[in-house]
Amino acid sequence: MENHYTRSRLKLGRVAEMSIENPNIEFPWQFHFPPFFTLQPHAETRAKQIAAWRSLVLEWYGATRQSKVDVREAGRGPPFANATINRRFPEEGITAVMEELARTGHAERLDKQGYTWAVHCGRTIDEWADCLLSWARDNGMSGTVCTLYELTHGDDTVSCDFHGLDEETLVRSVLRLQQRGNAEFMDFDDNRGVKFF
Question: What's the Rg (C-alpha) of the chain?
């Protein structure tokens, strides 16, 4: 049964070519167009370019479950570089994409300089929190303590979007549930978990 917390594929008008680095990602046509890797000077064109990068980055980090981006290093590989056409997006462009993701709640700056960012694996923290809470309620887990490991690596969550989620994003999502009064974050005996309400 397909639920809102189970995996679903994004259909973003992608071409059929798949990434060698991650077979679950289809790059947009722009990825093979050299000007895509140059920050456009015209405001309207730049807005469209950043929107395309935003979609690609959300899909990439959602599928790969990577969460940290260092803008000084990110241009060395996918999704910010395309070795086939010998192009990479500049730091200024990567920063603009991260700022747009932060504006929509999909990323957070981790340092004052703006070099290091946390990308929330394709969703906002609120969306991940809702996903966790829906799963807990649908599976009768209210009042139950689950370890973070069980949530991200357990057999009961294999079909869930949060299975394999990085711990930092998971903790932020659980803390958001705690703020809402839907869960309690627990830290015990070298392990961390959550009690759902």
Answer: 18
Amino acid identity, position 192: R
**SS3 letters across 131-160:** HHHHHHHHCCCCCCEEEHHHHHHCHHHCCE
**Domains delineated in the chain:** 29-119 (1.10.10.570), 125-196 (1.10.10.10)
Query: Is the CB of residue 154 less than 8 Å from the CB of residue 139?
Result: no
Q: Residue 33's closest CA among 82, 91, 79? A: 82
pTM exceeding the 0.85 threshold for the entire prediction: no
140: left (phi over 0), alpha (psi -120 to 50) or beta: left
Kind and range of the H or E run holding 186: strand 183-188
Q: Residue 173: which region, alpha, beta or left (left: phi > 0; alpha: psi -120 to 50)?
A: alpha
Per-residue pLDDT of the chain (197 residues; tens, 9 = 90+): 444 444 333 333 333 333 435 546 788 899 999 999 999 999 999 999 999 999 999 989 888 888 889 999 999 999 999 999 999 999 999 999 999 999 999 999 999 998 999 898 888 999 999 999 999 999 999 999 999 999 999 999 999 989 988 888 999 999 999 999 999 999 988 889 999 99
Residues 89 and 77: beta-carbon distance below 8 Å: no
d(CA 29, CA 32): 6
For residues 72 and 94, what is the distance between their CA atoms, to the nearest angstrom?
9
Give yes or no for a contact between 89 and 37, defined as CB atoms under 8 angstroms apart.
Answer: yes
